[in-house]
Design a protein that fits this description.
With 896 residues, this protein is of the alpha/beta class. 31% of the residues lie in helices and 19% in strands. α9 packs across α11 and α9 packs antiparallel against α12. It is globular.
Length: 896
């Protein structure tokens, strides 16, 4: 057998990040690592991956992994125990709490990072056997308003669109969606449609994001006013004779009421402009584009969902498509872009507190049906507490036991600091995770259960277009890590429910899940994958990406709602008048700004995975706040300085980025940093706990805040092979570096303090070099060993902050040249290490200076030429808007 035939074959699996659901080929690199590449045969991505997906191989280290079950003692210390002991303790304590306080004293908090099979088992245990519906998911924070909007319009949580619609549409409207950064592979399809077919793009967002760079029309809407804009659009369509009377008459209820309500909100272009803070001409242009274009897809994401009026926003969008009959046909319809890899799978199994499995609801008929199928002895009879309500009930002492799986709520939920304190009231706090130290675990978890991670898990996920894909293992489960479904099943068995949880594999669970979807269905429910109820193990292993519905014994409909039949009692869709839009909390003299939160390009959720990648650390390495230039001047803020963002609930200290694209009166901060990765960057501490009354989704885009400058004398960085220590009062943010630890910091501590922190003797013979300039306030230290750079510590006045990226490149190198060694303390690159500048393209490590050089030398004059010359922007494309802006700025400077 030759070497080529012995090479391991790549494993087809699915990316664990956003809801696009990209196919991944994972393969050993021959040196103990794994290389992740896009699967060219997967219909979600056709071989492309974003920057995060491309860096998956850098996130598989076992450093910092939770690998053994642990119990926390009365002294607060955790000790390793056997699986048997951990499971026995969990089961007996859950039974004790139920026996003493009833099933309603128990809650599960799940995650869109779980596989469908994990989700199914957890929901079955809680809703059918423990008898509590207090099981919710972090997907409540992402797309619950879409679920509520779908259910009241369609009678079911049905996403009618497919990714192909983005190829076929002639107008694509992106509402509250920074798709260029958050769904970059889909955004590339949209860009390609614009390039090849001439499709128009409209972006509606309070903040001018990277997505707006390719827009034909950008509408910088006032926070929370989306439903007013679409109410105005509905009125305009009706007054222009664009209502499809035949379609509405046969397939839609409620037009008159919805239109009357819309007129009260925005009866004309002028009124719509006044309500939304937009220019009348821009509103009229948008209305004209929508009116004159038959094939329209309206994509919406967190900017719509994360609102106290999120369900009404979704409803107002759907109303416009129903009124014109632009739904159920190719290239048209409302399209919710899901945030997490398996938020859709969680919806399918009833992962939300107000749903039952298989898209059933808390009606007497559905409760009876699910109970009979499961042979459940104790079916929950009513909806449970949604996420924010659940944690408020913990705070009040009503919930006594909580099991958190695969999520980090102490970072992601509103009022994060108060939540951390509330968790200490629990009699039983179980966490299943693969990370040893998170803000949630550190809030006092009593039981720590090591769960398998991506690359070790076996099951399915469902993406935004209802496509189920296999997530296959390509790594062994390390230590004593186990799949989540196994952990839950073992606890269920110890609680006396063993017969109902005797699963041997993920395939067993998938078959049961499929059978339940078809049970007494007969086309009455949208979710039906009965075709897989008897799938064999081999067929499950080789299951190709498949869109549902997939009913047994017949071909599914080509497209939901193509026949005009919905899942309401009379099979007609329902139009509903939205309430007058208004953020939950008014601004005040004390809190005069609106805080908008969201994701950035190269990080994910609370960075427990993406934060391990050195490649992803370089583009936006610190927690920051974007501020409009006028607001910055009014509040005394400086670009690259620091500011304290405060609300009624807490505060965070963040690096200031002055951004002309940020709407005046509003600031933006990313969600990713925790107390594990920064000293003061956890923005969840600041977010208000207000929720949508229908969906229960928190309003994460409109918290009233104040902002004030925070002054530090010095800033700097440290790179070391062992965890560094910093003086008290230092602001810091952790960054991933290969072979060690990195911190960026700001401080008032002077040179002598840092000399002591470095603990070095300035003696070249000992491999230590030190540079001190007391007059200018500069301190630099480098320690060399075995031909490489072992540690570095640089401090300088804030206004001349030292460059960390050039030193980082030397620290990560296996060895460095004499010229590089001599150049380290200069703070500048050595002659044999070109200064590429701050990273722009994370996929290929292309820096700002390299791109500028290509432009100035005439080697490239547009984004595509930059791609050909440097590869930048040719993989995920999420850096293309930034490259476009760089080109524009350089050409303007050249012309000037």
């Amino acid at each position: 057998m030759n070497a080529l035939s012995q090479a391991p074959q790549p494993v087809r699996t699915t990316c664990p990040y956003c809801g696009v659901g990209c196919g991944v080929l994972a393969k050993s690199d021959g040196a103990g690592g794994v290389v992740a590449a896009g699967d060219p045969d997967h219909p979600a991505n056709f071989g492309r991956l974003c920057s995060k997906g491309s860096a998956l191989g850098e996130t598989l280290s076992l450093e910092g992994r939770l690998l053994q079950p642990m119990l926390r003692g009365n002294d607060g210390a955790c000790s390793q125990v056997s699986w048997s002991a951990a499971l026995d303790h969990s089961a007996s304590e859950l039974s004790r709490v139920i026996g003493r306080h009833g099933p309603g004293a128990v809650a599960f908090y799940l995650s869109g990072q779980l596989l469908t099979e994990d989700y199914y088992v957890a929901n079955k245990l809680m809703k059918g056997f423990i008898g509590s519906a207090h099981v919710d998911t972090n997907s409540r924070l992402c797309m619950a308003s879409s679920v509520a909007g779908h259910r009241r319009a369609f009678g079911s949580d049905t996403v009618p669109g497919t990714y192909e619609d983005l190829d076929l549409a002639d107008l694509i409207v992106l509402v509250g969606s920074n798709a260029a950064w958050c769904h970059p592979i889909l955004y590339q399809r949209i860009e390609r449609n614009k390039r090849e077919r001439g499709a128009k793009i409209v972006v509606i967002d309070p903040r001018r994001t990277a997505t707006a760079e390719e827009a034909d029309l950008f509408l910088p809407i006032a926070p929370g006013m989306d439903s007013a804009l679409f109410a105005g659009l509905l009125v305009h369509l009706a007054d222009s004779g664009l209502v499809n009377e035949d379609y509405v008459g046969r397939h839609v209820n409620g037009l008159a009421e919805a239109l009357s309500g819309a007129r009260r909100l925005a009866g004309s272009v002028t009124q719509t402009a006044a309500a939304t803070g937009l220019l009348p001409g821009a509103v009229e242009h948008f209305f004209e584009l929508f009116r004159e274009t038959a094939r329209v897809v309206t994509c919406f994401s967190q900017g719509v969902n994360q609102s106290a009026q999120g369900t009404d926003k979704v409803t107002s969008i759907i109303n416009c498509h129903l009124a014109t009959g632009r739904i159920g046909r190719p290239g048209m319809g409302p399209f919710s872009l899901t945030g997490q890899p398996n938020a859709m799978g969680g919806r399918e199994v009833g992962g939300l507190a107000n749903q039952l499995a298989a898209h059933m609801a808390y009606t007497p008929e559905d409760i009876d049906r699910v109970g009979r199928f499961w042979r459940a002895p104790n079916m929950a009879q009513r909806e449970g507490l949604k996420a924010v309500q659940m944690f408020e009930a913990i705070e009040r002492g009503e919930i006594k036991a909580l099991w958190v799986m695969a999520t980090n709520p102490v970072v992601s939920l509103p009022r994060a600091g108060a939540l951390a304190a509330a968790l200490k009231k629990l009699e039983l706090f179980i966490v299943s995770d693969n990370t040893l130290s998170t803000d949630t675990l550190n809030a006092g978890a009593h039981v720590l259960l090591p769960a398998a991670a991506w690359g070790e898990k076996d099951g399915t996920v469902t993406n935004s277009e209802r496509r189920m894909s296999r997530q296959r293992p390509f790594l062994p489960q390390p230590g004593e890590a186990k799949p989540d479904w196994w952990i839950v099943s073992e606890v269920a068995r110890r609680m006396g429910f063993g017969d109902a949880f005797a699963y041997r594999s993920a395939a067993d669970i998938f078959r049961e899940h499929a059978a339940l979807s078809a049970f007494e269905n007969h086309g009455s429910r949208d979710f039906d994958i009965g075709a897989f109820a008897a799938i064999g193990d081999d067929a499950y292993d080789s299951l190709a990406p498949t869109q549902w519905p997939a009913p047994a014994g017949g071909a599914p409909a080509a497209r939901f709602f193509a026949d005009g039949r919905f899942f309401t009692s009379d099979r007609k869709a329902q139009m509903i008048a939205p309430r007058p839009p208004l953020p939950a909390r008014p601004l005040s003299v004390e809190y005069p700004l609106r805080l908008n939160t969201g994701r950035i390009r190269d990080q994910w959720h609370t960075m427990t995975r993406s934060g391990l990648s050195p490649r992803l650390a370089v583009h936006s390495p610190e927690p920051f706040v974007e501020v409009n230039p006028d607001d910055a001047a009014a509040f005394g803020l400086e670009d690259a300085g620091f500011a304290r963002v405060s609300s009624l609930f807490g505060s965070a200290v963040l690096r200031v980025v002055i951004a002309p694209g940020q709407r005046r009166g509003s600031v933006f901060a990313p969600i990713h940093w925790s107390h594990e990765t920064s000293s003061h960057g956890r923005i969840g501490d600041v977010v208000a706990p207000d929720t949508d009354p229908y969906s229960g989704q928190p309003e994460a885009k409109a918290t009233p805040v104040s902002i004030a400058p925070v002054r530090f004398r010095y800033s700097g960085f440290t790179l070391s092979q062992t965890p560094p220590s910093l003086p008290d009062g230092t602001w810091w943010a952790r960054v991933a570096v290969s072979g060690g630890h990195g911190l960026l910091f700001a401080t008032d501590a002077g040179i002598e303090t840092w000399h002591e922190v470095a603990g070095c003797s300035p003696d070249e013979a000992d491999g230590v070099a030190e540079y001190i300039d007391r007059e200018r306030g500069l301190y630099r230290m480098a320690r060399f060993a075995d031909g490489g750079l072992e540690a570095a510590l640089f401090v300088a006045p804030v206004e001349i902050a030292p460059r960390w990226d050039t030193v980082k490149a030397l620290f990560e190198a296996d060895s460095i040249s004499d010229a590089q060694r001599r150049a380290v303390l200069s703070g500048r690159p050595a002659d044999d290490l070109p200064d590429t500048g701050p990273t722009v393209c994370a996929c290929f490590g292309v820096g700002l200076h390299t791109i500028r050089d290509a432009i100035l030398t005439g080697a490239a004059a547009d984004v595509d030429e930059i791609g050909k010359a440097l590869r930048a922007g040719t993989n995920c494309g999420s850096c293309r808007p930034e490259i476009k802006k760089i080109i524009s700025n350089e050409l303007l400077a050249k012309a000037g």
